[in-house]
Design goal:
The longest helix is centred in the C-terminal third of the chain and has 44 residues. Helix 2 runs antiparallel to helix 9. Strand 3 and strand 4 form a beta hairpin. The strands form two sheets. Strands 3-4-9-6-8-7 form a six-stranded mixed beta barrel. A two-stranded antiparallel ribbon has the order 2-10. The protein starts with a helix and ends with a helix. The protein is of the alpha+beta class.
């Protein structure tokens, strides 16, 4: 394997067929280059999809209400469906073991003020479980708890940028924040990886909002996370079950798509995986097709090389060279060409992806790259490709009979 003379002979054989060797190597390099770039772009699409969930749990189900689009069981169409606290309790009590966390949501846009500073912020009224759905990270103090809900306390948890906007260099913890003319105590400050908008939110217990703004038990939306032990198909079926149960509860036609809307991240994940699966399949076909073309080219190069060296190989066998040593020499030459060309293509592909970077974000391609595992697989593939490309010519070389080879002109 590390015989100096053998490697010298291999390089001499390659130098005699420079153009053929270059063209075959170019085909392999181009195939690996195209495969690497396409795979990186596919991973970029996946990264873009996953980034949309970076600030939320990936097992969320959203339940929204609207107006009915058709009459059903004596009820007229265009009837408004209004969720209430009892519907939130229905979720918690009827799907035990299937639901991890659940929260109602009520939205308001309000004016918040501290001393001379003021601003308009989104108020979101929630249950304490909301912290786990939103992946809220507490920087100071605590999140809302059950006591805040049951006792309807005037406590708030504010985003990092709310503190920065209104409290400047002061710590907001324990201070009184005026929201729509009502004083609230800041019991916590959070940060969120979802961006600036997510950190300009003020969280209040949902029963507090209901008491202060309308004295009712109305809910805008119900969100929950399903048990992660569920498969994607089971999660989708669970979301369908919730929709059916709510439609029955509110006397909504089964085929009414506007009154009760249930959406699961599992459906988004499934649809995206199907699309990405198709993309990866095309990448695989293109990469394999181009690589096979390269293998055939290298096989032809080796065949021509052996034909030109028939007399030389005959002399080798006459002097005692074994068929195995000849096969090994031919395979080494084939693996060398394939591996070098392949790695040139791989390096060029990685450089191309680095140059692309995040310049294609507008096309939903984020941080395109190939994983270390792909490089390992590429290494094994290139070695196997070299073996495949050189095996048939190597066997042909090993079968050359010395007496016939010596007569060859």
């Amino acid at each position: 394997m590390f015989d100096r003379d053998r490697w010298q002979e291999i390089f001499e054989a390659i130098s005699k067929n420079k153009l053929r060797t270059f063209l075959s190597g170019f085909t392999v390099a181009l195939g690996i280059l195209i495969f690497t770039v396409l795979l990186g772009l596919g991973n970029g699409l996946l990264n873009s999809f996953l980034s949309s969930f970076v600030d939320d749990a990936q097992n969320i189900i959203f339940i929204n209400s609207g107006n009915t689009s058709k009459a059903y069981k004596g009820f007229q169409e265009n009837r408004k469906i209004q969720f209430k606290n009892e519907d939130f309790e229905f979720i918690k009590s009827n799907y035990i073991g299937k639901v991890e966390f659940a929260t109602p949501r009520i939205y308001r846009n309000s004016q918040a003020k501290y001393k001379k500073e003021s601003g308009s912020y989104n108020i979101t009224a929630v249950h304490p479980d909301h912290q786990y759905l939103e992946k809220t990270i507490m920087m100071k103090g605590r999140y809302l708890n059950e006591d805040d809900v049951n006792e309807r306390t005037k406590n708030v948890v504010i985003g990092r940028l709310v503190e920065k906007d209104l409290f400047k260099n002061e710590s907001a913890l324990g201070k009184m924040l005026n929201v729509d003319g009502i004083p609230f105590k800041v019991v916590g400050v959070f940060q969120d990886s979802g961006g600036d908008n997510e950190e300009r939110i003020i969280y209040i217990a949902y029963k507090t909002i209901q008491l202060l703004y309308g004295n009712n038990d109305h809910i805008r939306q119900i969100n929950l996370t399903y048990n992660m032990a569920m498969s994607t198909e089971q999660a989708i079926a669970f979301a369908t079950q919730i929709e059916e149960d709510f439609k029955e509860k509110f006397k909504v036609a089964p085929d009414d798509q506007s009154a009760i809307r249930v959406r699961s991240f599992a459906e988004d994940i499934k649809e995206t995986m199907v699309i990405l699966g198709g993309i990866y399949f095309v990448i695989f076909i293109v990469g394999i097709g181009t690589l096979i073309s390269g293998i055939i080219g290298i096989g032809n190069i080796m065949t021509f090389s052996i034909k030109e060296r028939t007399k030389e190989l005959g002399i080798r066998k006459a002097l005692g060279a074994s068929p195995r040593s000849i096969i090994t020499m031919v395979l080494q030459e084939s693996i060398l060409i394939t591996s070098v060309a392949g790695y040139v293509g791989l390096i060029l592909g990685i450089l191309a992806l680095n140059l692309i970077g995040n310049n294609l974000e507008e096309f939903f391609i984020l941080n395109p790259k190939v994983e270390t595992g792909v490089i390992v697989v590429a290494t094994v593939t290139l070695i196997l490709s070299g073996l495949m490309a050189g095996y048939i010519p190597a066997r042909r070389a090993a079968r050359i009979k010395p007496i016939i080879a010596l007569r060859d002109e």
